[in-house]
Amino acid sequence: MRLLFSSVLALAVATPALAQIAAPQISVETLKSVTQELSLDAYEGRAPTTAGEQKTIDYLVKRFAAAGLKPGNKGQWTQDVPMVEITATNVSPFTATGGKAPVTFNHRTDMVVNTYRAVPKIALKDSELVFVGYGINAPEKGWNDYAGLDVKGKTVVILVNDPDWQVKEAGATAGPFEGRAMTYYGRWTYKFEEAARQGAAGAIIVHDTEPAAYGWSVVQSSWTGAQYGLAAPNDHMDQSQVVGWIQLPKAKELFASAGKDFAQLSAAAKRKGFRAVPLGMRLSGSFSNEIKRSMSKNVVGVLPGTQAPDEVVLYSAHWDHLGRCDAVEGDDICNGAVDNATGTAALVAMAEAYRAGGPTRRSVGFVAVTAEESGLLGSQYYAANPVFPLGKTVGGVNMDGLNVVGATRDFEIIGAGKSELEDMVKPLLATQGRRVAPEATPESGSYYRSDHFSFAKLGVPMLSAGSGEDLVNGGVAAGRAAAKDYLAKRYHGPKDEYDPKWNWDGAVQDLTIYYQLGRQLADGDAWPNWYPTAEFKAIRDKSRLEAK
């Protein structure tokens, strides 16, 4: 408590008084016009390295300039992001043999497969299948699903999420993975990374809607078609040959053929000391790759500070979406209106608000990043090659999907309990008569699924937050119903389109908070840090020391 109180006190004396911050001018018209424009079919779903990207970049540069921003990258509006685009073609049905009966996985309906390797042909031949539980190696938690196991040349079958996902509470009653709030060990990105570190030839995640927090249709739309990665000198040959997902019913069929009880082994995998189980079956299959090397772009603008221009408060949002996808009622363009034309529009509206509010002591940067949908690639590249040095980046806000269903009484901080930015947000919320609510779906791992995480991993405190569920009109029931409807019917699908009937009151509430938070930082001299228990604090301390 003393540490927390001292942190709050330090921030209080180093930032402008709340009463001195004028209410921002958040333009609903800007939010509407930018969102509507970027959601048009003419942008073809804003996939990276397509004609839709160039159209998006041109439009954003125009809007950034009109909002009063200056080119942020040494006089340039954009930062090149070298990409490799891999599209799997001629995907054969994968087959597991050696059990009671062969098990065939048809592409898209039963299984989706891809590779990070930039090679023309991928083939698995009789790769031994091994169930590795949640596929986690966490020495600090005394947990290793790969203990005593050599998986070189083998294919690992992995459960989604982490072992605590069904635990209702955090704290002493939770397991080592902190209750139902997903840790990074539960993210699919981690599972494929760890499988590659272990030398696995293949890594297959079992999809289950509840612990994944999204349905099979999301996996299909996200994992078929062109897949993007950052270019690498070794063409990612250190990655597994095959990565992918299988449907839960097919996983159960596979285990049954192997003479194993899927439910029993899944339960065992939740317990410390679990040991991997060879399935006694072998997986074979192949596909070709169409490989395209290209350059995508981040868009970077800045409002230079008047006294400390080398210190930067950052706002970020991803401009990309999925492009073409599985058709619904003849429509095969995933427009990504909420995800994330709204957040991109917020960058423009925020820039306009800062211009109207007058110059700031520190600089304010605005970064629209590419390829979030492909694994946070644009922000990952920016964080590794920062336009504004990370040790001089004060902190900021990432905006991914605005509230378009109305004002709320509450506010969710994604991954709460990590940084001192939260201490600054709470009094701002009080001026709106709002409260911080517990994260509605911590098991979905939202903290690790958007671009703020790329900055956090390298030490920069970035707020990821948004409206809660308690709608002023309709309460919690209406808020939950709206979220459920979007996830089921529109998220990562062709139905995520602009709607002129949207209610922007909640978005304006949230953007007001983001502006006031950023304005305090930009007009003050505070350096908010991570809480002492946060995994990113040591990195932040090191980068700040090096920047002095």
Automatic annotation (TrEMBL):
Domain of life: Bacteria
Record protein name field: Peptidase family M28
Species in which this protein is naturally found: Sphingomonas jeddahensis
Pfam family, one: Peptidase_M28
Domain Peptidase M28: 298-513
Record's signal peptide: 1-19
Entry GO MF terms: aminopeptidase activity; metal ion binding; metalloexopeptidase activity
InterPro entries: M28_fam, PA_dom_sf, Peptidase_M28
Keywords for the protein's UniProt record, in alphabetical order: Aminopeptidase, Hydrolase, Metal-binding, Protease, Signal, Zinc
UniProt-listed GO biological process terms: proteolysis
